[in-house]
Structures are given as C-alpha cells and as structure tokens.
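Action item from last week, closing it out:
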Amino acid sequence: MIDHARDLVSVRDATERLLTAAAKLDDAALTEPSLLPRWTRGHVLAHLARNADALVNVLEGRPMYVSGEARDADIERDAPRPLDIQLADVRDTAARFQEAGAAPADWSRTVELRGGVTDSASRVPFRRWMEVDLHHVDLGIGYELEDLPEEFVERAVDFLAARFTGHPDVPPTRITDGTRAWSTGRGAGAPDITVTGSRPDLLGWLAGRRDGSGLTAGGGPLPALPSL
C-alpha cells in the first residue's frame, strides 16, 4: 500500500541530499552539460523547481502545466540563473510541495498529470521522489544509480515496468535481478525476452539513463524502450 506521508519524508530527504551536493558547485559548473541530452546542470535544477510547482498544481486541482510549450519555456528561462538563485528556488518550491502534501485531502482521489496521464493522488509524492533522485544522478556530480536508496530503486523499477506494460512497441518482457521478477511490454502471454541484471542497471535502462550494456537478454535482443 502506498504511504504518501512516508513518501513525503523521503522526498524531503532526497531534496536535502541534492541541495547539499549542488551547493558545492559554482556558477560556471551550472553551464556545463548534465547527463541529459541538450540540458545543462542549470536546466536540471530549473526543471526540478518548476516540477515542484507543477505538482502543487496537481495536488490543488489545477492543470499541471499551462502547456508543454510553456513548461519548456520556463525551464529555458530559468536555466542560466546563478547557483544561489537556483538553490533557493529548488528549496522554496520543495517547501511549497511539502505544504501542499501536508494539507488535509482525499489521497485516494484521481488526479491528472501531464499529457492526460492520471494517477492516484497518493502516488504523487513518489513521483516527486523519482524526479528528485533521478535528476540528482543527471547532474553528473558523483551521485550514481548505485547510490540510490534500495527501497527507491525497487519501487522505481516497479513503477517503470508498469508504465511500459501494454505498450505496443515493447515486446512481452520478463525483467529480473535474479531475486525478483517483473513483467512488462505488450500482451499477456509468455514473455518473448528475459532481461537480467542488477537493479540499478535495470532502473537505468527503464528510465533511459543507461543503454542496457550491463544487462543480458535471452530470447531476443534487448528491447529498445520508448522515451518516457
């Protein structure tokens, strides 16, 4: 069962880890490439701040973003800011997200996210946790997928495997770390392909952060996953 209150604590802790690490950078470092294509580290921090605002909108019943174009424009606008302003923005928007999460609410209600995606309100804090910890890795400052909390990695693999379930471009696939297995892809029959590897490598592949070279695929080639 999802515990949104516990996840809010995990989001807070992940945000503090990120802010502590990012505070060791300087303005020049923010202009350098992140691990995400076409984004600098400044883009990553700007996105984290604007995503917090967007998820507050979701929790309070407003559209997540005015539009996809407005979302992208806000990130481009904020990416060049100096480090102190970036960090203050991430911290302040994170605090607003925590306040929205602490407000009395029906956490079983359905909320609408970007692109018409819907989910239980109770899962919004975990979605924010994914944003914070994965984008901490994306900063490329020494925090790796192997450094992520074990609970987070397992739940993120759960979440992403479910996200690709039923996707017409992903063959029926069994994913396993040798201890636990997940099913994903189109169809409900026996899997065409079995993908095996460590949980961080599985997460990296599912999240588009690694090319899958650390994984082994049986029954066919490693599936090419669509962008999230």
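Closing note: The two ends are 25 Å apart (CA to CA).
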